[in-house]
Predict the 3D structure of the following.
Amino acid sequence: MNGTGTTPTEVPEERRHTGTVRLGDRARDAAAPDDITRYAPEWLQLREGADAAARASELLDPLRIRLANLPRRADGFVIHDLGCGTGSMGRWLAPRLDGPQHWVLHDRDPYLLHFAAAGSPRSAADGSRVTVETQRGDIGRLTADALAGASLVTASALLDVLDADEIEALAAACAGAGCPALLTLSVAGRVELTPAHPLDAEIAGAFDDHQRRDGLLGPEAVGTARDAFSRHGATVRVHPSAWRLGPDESALTAEWLRGWVGAAVEQRPELAGPAEDYLRERLAACGAGELGVVVHHDDLLALARPVGGA
């Protein structure tokens, strides 16, 4: 992210594997705007179908009811997409909501913002117009004032790369603005591989520890967010949103495996030897169409109390 048009670097191993790679910088990153780790759009393109299939559509009806009860605006719903990456959330959600929508796409990477704006949907479920704007900046500084007039805050793969203070700030901002939040695809700390292997549990445990590095919440993020939004008066619903990867998703499974094992070894270097053999076996099974993987995530819908209302 050293400037618009710069070729993206490879997705770091520690982020490409999670099933919840966030395409944008961590909110509290102290780096200067022109010194930001970039996440390759190719990874999002590879995972977008699995993301779309996993997101919890069960949360859409309560969200639609809340949106229907909001005061009507001339420009329709205003939706802020935090850490938007290349815009997959908008491509999934906008065509599932009726009415005109204006999406505000937030990310620190102008390269990714360009992808997101260019690939955004142009019409809602009922054919109403969808428009977009982009905002480059640090979502860790997002306040209730910045969200004034927002109908919805949304994000994918965001919560598990935040710490407790950042989640508290997000909940406070949404509560202060009186807008709901739909936060999808946060890692849940559970992975199932079929057939099983004796090293599965050890790799998974090391990976989960890696997710918690530097004060990040990793698998505890959804529980922390549920508590934070509830303290601020929101009604919170959580629903599972697992990736279910089979032979048709072998390319995604292989990339996920490399990153998942790589993060485990980074966390516990003594695993390097056994993990090399493990990865080789798992990739061979994946290539033969003989490996199934379930990566568990959770989606969270927080319905904040409307400003000035009950």
In short: Residues 13-188+215-242+295-303 form a domain with the Rossmann fold fold (CATH 3.40.50.150). The first strand starts at residue 77 and ends at 82.
